[in-house]
């Protein structure tokens, strides 16, 4: 799940990436905005979700995926869109365009 918060005085948005996986002990966000380097997501025991906040420039689209336990990939099932990647699957897309 993606939650977006836009700032009035900055051309950036704070994106909260949330992911739930029943058997995962570790989930990492892997995205083009950080050169596809895994970033560990924090586990919240209350709602059993992995969460990470990251600021991104507005008016752009970024591809990303979740890496579960360092071995399997999954997409955000509530992403803004999906695009084919070079590995025979799809990437999730987060869109930081401000809506009027």
Automatic annotation (TrEMBL):
Pfam family, one: AMPK1_CBM
Alphabetized SUPFAM superfamilies for the sequence: E set domains
InterPro entries: AMPK1_CBM (IPR032640), Ig-like_fold (IPR013783), Ig_E-set (IPR014756)
Domain AMP-activated protein kinase glycogen-binding: 15-96
Domain of life: Bacteria
Protein name from the UniProt record: 1,4-alpha-glucan branching protein
Lineage of the species this protein comes from: Bacteria, Pseudomonadati, Pseudomonadota, Gammaproteobacteria, Alteromonadales
